[in-house]
Amino acid sequence: MLVDTYKTKGMRQTLVNQLRAKGIVDERILEAINKVPRHFFLDSAFLNHAYQDKAFSIGEGQTISQPYTVAYQTNLLNINTGDKVLEIGTGSGYQASILIELGANLYTIEYNRKLYEKAKQLLHKLNYKAHFVCGDGSQGFAAAAPYDKILVTAGSPTVPSILIEQLKEGGKLVIPVGDLQSQQMCCIEKLPHGETKINLHDFFVFVPLLGKFGWKGL
Ligand code: SAM
């Protein structure tokens, strides 16, 4: 049963205060995090883990991202209401609901069929509307391109050029790039005439991006 009590609301407020102290200042993002009950996205036995600022297992060898990481990536994306956004790595659906709270018209793609089914059902119950796709997001999702923003929530060995192709001019790709141990957050803007501008940010540890343009052999 999905119940949000005074206790879980209080735990969420404490988490928001911690994120603010860690440098997340965008009130819209903090408000969205304050609104979405993160414990709905974890098994109910792990309620006490839901509002700690850490990644947590969601089964299938995958994780729900750390709240700080969700806030950090969302901040780089700078979502405007109505932006068409592609999220690669639906996972639990938590990041997806934050993007929807911020007004994104969201396409979200997940490689693992069980996680795809579970997230789709949960977001439907919570009345969060998105376009759910099960498939290899390392190739983007050409059928609905171009996008204003693309967010990759798994660590990639490179920046797949196919993702830049699927951006609108002026669009933005946020992707963690590196080896399997650590990845640097890259923010790539698509400029006119096929040019790109890359900004490099902090290092994180993500589960690997699988598929054709990810870590193929894993
Ligand atoms: N955004 C998620 C959330 O809020 O729970 C967390 C994502 S988890 C860190 C990374 C996800 O990317 C996993 O669910 C994994 O199955 C998925 N993934 C890995 N490679 C993928 C690919 N090529 N296409 C789509 N999803 C992929």
Detailed description of the structure:
This protein has 218 residues and is α/β, with parallel strands linked by helices. The chain has one domain (6-204): Rossmann fold (3-Layer(aba) Sandwich), CATH 3.40.50.150. The protein contains seven helices and nine strands, in the order αααββαβαβαββαβββ. It has helices spanning 6-21, 27-35, 47-50, 67-77, 94-101, 113-125, 161-165, and strands at 56-59, 62-64, 84-88, 105-110, 131-134, 147-152, 167-178, 183-190, 196-204. Strands 5-4-3-6-7-8-9 form a seven-stranded mixed β-sheet. A hairpin with a 5-residue loop joins strand 8 and strand 9. The radius of gyration is 16 Å and the shape is globular. The mean pLDDT is 96. S-adenosylmethionine (SAM) is lined by residues 62-65, 88-89, 91-92, 94-95, 109-112, 115, 136-138, 153-154, 206-207, 209-211, 214.
In short:
The protein has helices spanning 6-21, 27-35, 47-50, 67-77, 94-101, 113-125, 161-165; strands at 56-59, 62-64, 84-88, 105-110, 131-134, 147-152, 167-178, 183-190, 196-204. The chain has 218 residues and is an alpha/beta fold.
